[in-house]
Structure formats: structure tokens, C-alpha cells
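Example 3.2
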Amino acid sequence: MKVNVIMFSPAGGTARTAEILARELGTLTGAVDIAEHDVFYEGIRADAESIAVVAMPCYGGRVPQLAAERFRKVNGNGAKTVLLCVYGNRAYEDTLVEMEDLAKERDFDVIAGVAAIAQHSIVSSIGAGRPDSSDAAKLKDFAQKILAKLEAGDNSKPRLPGKRPYKKAMGKLGLVPHATKGCLYCGTCAKKCPVQAIDIDKIFGASRRKCISCMRCVANCSVDVRKLNALELKLVEAKIKKEASSRKEPELFL
């Protein structure tokens, strides 16, 4: 079976998790990341004869606003679809049901939902190293169960956890990474920013108005010198550490 991935993966955790699941479902024939700012979103059309894996990170219990805006330009073409919500070991709350509504709106035929864990994009000590080997084993097992459902011709829809109306969307965090000593002025952070918040001629800073705190610039810095303010990072860690202290496990919804 051919598999296509449509994802929003600024910091890479969602992409790594989606690849594990997708490769176990079949032959990965294409992947598009709508976090890229120069993608022609209206031209993205799922293959009706393939399985689509739609993967999104959780931002404060919701689909990131930018991801939802861009996804609303994609054509699902009736493709059988697995929804993959990836979160940083805190909680995913209404993310999966919001993904389900977006998928239905764009003509994706949802057959399964998965909630999985990746390293927290802001506080890297939370969920560090995830998805790990245990996560991978569970995702591969989920894939086999999803394939069995398809082979059985089971057209039932998954009952996904979450509430409608969704919880209030998280506002901008105001956490803006800046370059520190050692910057190579390579411009990768500016090129990779989903919202073009970094001016190539003023590479050390970023636009507080535009920045969505997705940490893509941090994840793509080859010399690891783009960082958040240490005090701000410590305050965020203190706020979420209690909820994220115990290990969460991947969940499958068929």
C-alpha cells in the first residue's frame, strides 16, 4: 500500500513520529510539510488510492492556528486517512477532534486516530529522546491494526477523545529565540521560519509580532546557538513540568 504524509512539523518531532507510522503502513511515496512557508498549499492533493497520514503537533491542546489555516487549502480527495497528533508528554486535549473536523472539511476519510509523544519543542528535557524504541514498537503495532481494519473492509469511524466546542486557543507565547555568540550568519533560520519572522539582514533577532514560538529556527541551527531567554525558558518549564512529569504512552483509536 502506498502512503502519503501531510504534516505540520516545525521542530521535527512530528515528522519523525509520522515516518515511523507511515513506513509500517506501507511504502512511503511522498511527504509534504506545510510548515514550509513557500509551499503551494492549494496544490496539495491526497492520492485517493493511497493511505494519507495527516500529522500535527499539539499547541496548548489545539491544532496550531497556522497549521489549520494552511491545511484548509489542501484537498483530501476522499483518501483513507490516519490522523496523528503528536504532543510533548503533557496532554493533547482537543487536538484530535479538531484534526478530525478539519480532515472531514477537506474530504479526508478518517479511519483511525493516533496520539503519540515526541520531545517537547520548547522544553527539550521533557520527553527527551522521544519517540524512542518503545514508542516505535507501539506505533508499528498500531499500523498493523489499522491495516487489518482496512483489509477487513471495516468502514467504522473512530471515536476520538476531545470536546466540541474546543478549548480556547492558546495565544502567542511571546517566546522569541535569538542568536547568541557563535552564529555563522548562514541564514538557515531565516529560510526555514514558517512565518518569515527572521530578517536575513538582522539575523540575531526575530519579529515578536510574527513569531509563533514553533522552535523551527532552534531545531535547524547547525551550531546550536539560537536559543530562548534562559529565564523565560525556566518559567515555562516550571509551569508545565508537573503535568508532564509522568511518562505518557501512545494511544490508538479505531
